[in-house]
Design brief:
The protein is of the alpha+beta class. The protein is built from five helices and 21 strands. Among the domains are: 100 residues, Trypsin-like serine proteases (Thrombin, subunit H, Beta Barrel); 94 residues, Roll (Pdz3 Domain). Strand 5 and strand 6 form a beta hairpin. The longest helix has 19 residues.
């Protein structure tokens, strides 16, 4: 049997790899051109009697034309000044305005002003797989650019200050190459908006390709504003340690909730202790806001709750009880 055949279909054109690569390259090139003037190479020093002692290096991102730069707190740890070198070769001195080790963010101010501020974006709008570019000064190589994608969102890592510890939430994971010296530099989207401040390489020497960046969002903008205004971030302190846990069936039925924060320990003499909170209580609400994880509690512990009565609803002995705590200000010597 002979099958009738029509004209052969036209060949499917192969993807134009050169054109695709050019499009990718154009994006990265545009981001680099717009942000390189805003990213400085930092040399950090500590003033001592008789001179200055070098204590580290990193990167910083200009955020205002009159001299403010954003960087990582660990870059300027134990330091109070340094020098910033920009892509045009200009080198200026800077002073540390304030650092918040519990978010790993710091603000410095360069002498003279006249900076090219970067445009800040919103990391909460990022999507996994989105193109990002890292700009900084890895291993002392100033003005270095690498590109990759957002590998994951919603990561967290522990930041510490003294004996206090806190989770930095919604950290951005990227495979854009990061190395020592990138800390404090910019992580930018394809619109050249800074969406993160590069902070760490997970598993240095082993986990290459697992870079982390503190997100730029409403929370970190408020931290940056507080550092610029006051040189510090005020946080409320309850004095508990705990973790998220599913509610027992009876508690879930009584409250209509799935999860809460189980208190594992209460610091002696803390506001939580004074309020009568105790281990095995399950926190459901704080100040009328439902919470089900430690991150939610941290977000509520803002400076405006310091020293004022705050209601804490807990599930205890088969029923919901409401206690009143009066948070104090978190000091780095407190155990969070």
């Amino acid at each position: 049997m002979t099958l009738a055949t029509g004209p052969a279909p036209p060949p499917v054109p192969a993807p134009d790899e050169d054109e695709a690569m050019d499009a990718y390259s154009r994006v990265v090139t545009r981001v680099a051109e717009r942000l390189l003037p805003s990213v400085a190479s930092l040399r950090v020093v500590t003033r001592v009697r008789g001179g200055r002692v070098p204590t580290g290096s990193g990167s910083g991102v200009a955020v205002t034309p009159d001299g403010f730069l954003l960087t990582s707190a660990h870059v300027v740890e134990h330091a109070d000044a340094g020098s910033a070198t920009f892509a045009d070769g200009r080198e200026v001195g800077f002073d540390v305005v304030g650092a918040d080790r519990l978010s790993d963010l710091a603000v410095i101010r360069a002498e003279g002003g006249g900076l090219a501020p970067a445009t800040l974006g919103d990391a909460d709008r990022l999507r996994v797989g989105q193109l990002v570019c890292a700009i900084g000064n890895p291993l002392g190589f100033a003005g270095s650019v690498s590109a990759g994608v957002v590998s994951a969102l919603g990561r967290s890592f522990a930041a510490t200050g003294g004996r206090a510890a806190r989770l930095v939430e919604n950290v951005i994971q990227t495979d854009a190459a990061l190395h020592p010296g990138n800390s404090g530099g910019a992580l930018a989207n394809s619109a050249a908006e800074v969406v993160g401040i590069n902070t760490a390489v997970a598993g240095a020497g082993i986990g290459q390709g697992l870079g982390l960046a503190v997100p730029i969002n409403a929370t970190t903008r408020s931290i940056m504003a507080a550092l610029m205004r006051e040189g510090r971030v005020r946080r409320a302190y309850l004095g508990i340690a705990g973790g998220s846990r599913p509610l027992p069936p009876r508690a879930a039925a009584a409250t209509g909730r799935d999860k809460g924060i189980e208190i594992l320990s209460v610091v002696t003499g803390s506001p939580a202790s004074g309020a009568g909170l105790r281990p095995e209580d399950i926190i459901l609400e704080v100040d009328g806001v439902a919470i089900d994880d430690v991150g939610g509690l941290q977000r509520l512990m803002t400076g405006d709750r310091i020293g004022r009565p705050v209601s804490v609803a807990v599930f205890r002995d088969g029923r919901v009880r409401t206690l009143t705590a009066r948070p104090t200000e978190l000091n780095e010597d407190d155990l969070d």
